[in-house]
Design a protein that fits this description.
Blueprint: E1 5-7, E2 12-15, E3 20-24, E4 32-37, E5 48-51, E6 56-59, E7 67-74, E8 83-87, E9 93-94, E10 99-101, E11 106-110, E12 117-121, E13 136-138, E14 143-147, E15 156-164, E16 177-180, E17 182-183, E18 189-190
Parallel strand pairs: 1-3, 2-8, 9-11, 10-16
Antiparallel strand pairs: 3-6, 4-5, 4-7, 7-8, 11-14, 12-13, 12-15, 15-16, 17-18
Length: 191
């Protein structure tokens, strides 16, 4: 599967630890751009030079703490005030997985199938769910980065309904869940 690509002039994008992605720039924006950190940096190199039409690979450190990291471009972005790379709180999340996050955490759903998938809250949930939209659709072999709102309630569990385009859903015996709360070292949920 090819690396995900991000324009050097993006205001923000979300990556996972140890991910290799490609920086790109359009010739209409600049012929060459230098990308460097403002202060701390989650990438394995300190600076990248990106040339229009030629993707430049970058790798996120396997030990990068989750969080947001500001970066600058030379020449600067014309219509972007600030730029940040966000390292997700966990590795890619399969659309059929149960996972636990804390308020403010970013994550990336990954659809490994050849069909688009739609993820929605189960109508039987006592609470709707903390994510902003009614549902989220992820294209075939696609990714979707989201964050848990900082004011999300702790110790809540939300059943998810996953539907694949053309029919079907997750093949697991249990329904996938999004859990907002704390987890033990073994990944178990604690209320």
């Amino acid at each position: 599967m090819p690396n995900r690509q991000f324009n050097v002039y993006s205001s923000q994008f979300v990556v996972v630890r140890n991910e290799t992605f490609d920086w790109v720039v359009n010739a209409a924006e600049a012929s060459s751009v230098t990308v460097q950190p403002v202060s701390s940096w989650p990438l394995t190199q300190n600076q990248y030079v990106v040339t229009a039409g030629t993707p430049t690979s970058a790798t996120v450190s396997s030990s990068a703490p989750a969080g947001s990291y500001a970066f600058d471009c030379t020449p600067p972005a014309q219509d972007v005030g600030s730029q940040a790379i966000v390292v997700a709180a966990r590795d890619f999340v399969d659309v059929c997985a149960t996972f636990t996050l804390m308020p403010g955490d970013f994550f990336i759903w990954k659809n490994s199938t050849s069909n688009p998938v739609t993820i929605a809250p189960d109508p039987s949930n006592p609470d709707f769910w903390p994510l902003g939209s009614q549902s989220h659709t992820i294209g075939a072999h696609g990714h979707l980065s989201l964050s848990i709102p900082a004011d999300a309630d702790l110790n809540k569990s939300y059943n998810l309904v996953v539907t694949f385009d053309g029919g079907g859903g997750c093949t697991q015996n249990t329904q996938p869940k999004l859990i907002i709360g704390t987890s033990g070292m073994d990944g178990s949920y604690r209320s």
